[in-house]
Amino acid sequence: MSVFSLLRHALRHHAGWTQTWRSPEPQAAYDTVIIGGGGHGLATAYHMARQYGIGRVAVLEKGWLGGGNTGRNTAVIRANYLREESIRFHVRSLQLWNELSHALDYNVMFSPRGQIDLIRTWGKLRDLRRRAAIMARHGVAYDIITPAEIRVRVPGIDIGAPGARAPGEGGKRFPVLAGAWHPEAGIARHDAVAWAYARAADTLGVDIIQNCEVTGLRRDGRRVTSVETTRGEIGCARVGVAVAGHAGVLAGMAGFRLPVETWPLVAFVSEPLKPVLDTCINCPQTHVYVNQSDKGELVIGGGPDPYRGHAQRGEWETVEAVTRALLDLFPQWGRVKLLRQWAGMIDVAYDTSPILSRSPLDNLFLSVGWGSGGFKAIPAGGEAFARLIATGEPDDLTAPFRLDRFREGRPLFETASASARG
Amino acid sequence: MLLPCPHCGRRPVAEFRYGGEDGAGRLRGDKVLDGDALANSLYGFDNPKGVSPEWWQHVAGCRAWFRLTRDTATDRVLGGGP
């Protein structure tokens, strides 16, 4: 796709565009069936077809591509985690994000605009200094900056009057004491990520089957022999589960339990504004993050709801709390209208780290429990999951995310996530 | 969402704390468990999309703990219990 092909199509009155991917009827059987046509499922299918080429691959999606939680997040991409295991993995993902539009020949609108984490207590400053030291070991900048630097970088932000250092000073109950600047963070267009992987996978022969909900898994001992769907039974040699919000449902069909709970994570967008914010702002202590999309909408999110569930609307109490936290930082946005509000479903593992792993069944593999970090993990997650399904062995980056860690009593507690256990 | 506290009646959800899926995260009985069975009882959840028993506490009211049956897909409360 180039500007010249766009021009050529324009001169032909846009009558010559072809379908971006096929919509084939499901075949009787595939070598690999991937359940879930979101970013992770599509990226996995793409890498399966491109790097491993082991037979026919199908992606089953119960709705439409990217219409699940790939399209219900706030599109933030970052690598400032706590654990070395998480940081290493997300640094790889950031590398892939930077190359993604070229690799897939599709503009995913990756915009590495950086993120500032706002720090409001001395304890939090100590925590972020520690994370900065770990991240520096892995080659990612995460620099502590002063309130004066924040004011220059983000005009219009209200973080307390200059010099405020204690609770109650500078017109703030908790004035901002410092920031942590993560220059390689950014956002991308989430629909385009799903479409880009779908087109690339389809070109390589992957069957993407939409409106095809999995209703059961047929088993013979410890092997899945076929997948029952709303569009008939589909035989399979291997199954990859790449779902969000339904990990418990799929595990129930497979006959085991997972250390995963589903929580709603609210998000909302404002009406489009002129450019007012050219970076991502995150305040982990008041639970709000905000960025401005290329359309001009403010994309706003916070922490998960106070109780688990699968209702996709989110709790009103959370919306109010996030809005209060946002207006504390940007009081001038008090009259901005909100356009849409929804909740994404996040599958949170007991230790808030993902599960990219073999399962209790021999030929069923899991890429679940990505919590509030699923979107940013798509490129590296798809790459690693394809390898796991194709070879049966994880790579070094994702080996720590195996399900067995719970049996071994070695959970991998991650706190630098919107869904971390309080 | 309004939740039925056994003492205070129907009150807004903001007054309550979610206490987890009933039966998850605790060991029952005197059977000695190990391996997968132990991990499953300590860390596993049924996490169904649908009706599920839960624990709640009325933290901003009488502070009682109580069981509740809720449909997690619709947030409809189907029954409370002591």
From the structure above, extract its key features.
heterodimer, A: 422 residues, alpha/beta, eight-stranded mixed sheet, 10 helices, 18 strands, globular, B: 82 residues, mainly beta, four-stranded antiparallel sheet, two-stranded antiparallel sheet, 1 helix, 11% helix
Briefly say what this structure is.
The complex is a heterodimer of chains A (422) and B (82). With 422 residues, chain A is α/β, with parallel strands linked by helices.
Number of strands of chain B: 6
What structural class is derived from the secondary structure elements of chain B?
mainly beta
Helix/sheet category of chain A? alpha/beta
**DSSP strand (E) fraction of chain B?**
35-45%
What helical percentage do the residues of chain A reach? 25-40%
| Main interface: chain pair and counts | A-B, 28 and 25 residues
N-C termini distance of chain B = 20 Å
The main pleated sheet of chain A reads as: 8 strands, mixed
Oligomer: heterodimer
Instruction: Provide a count of the helices of chain A.
Output: 10
How far apart lie the N and C ends of chain A?
Answer: 46 Å
Shape of chain A: globular
| Average pLDDT number of chain A | 94
Low-confidence stretches of chain B are: none
Count the beta strands of chain A.
18
Order of helices and strands of chain A: HEHEEHEHEHEEHEEEEHEEEEHEEEHH
Please state the average pLDDT score of chain B.
Answer: 89
H/E element order of chain B: EEEHEEE
Query: What is the helix fraction of residues of chain B, given as a range?
Result: 10-25%
Spatial shape of chain B: elongated
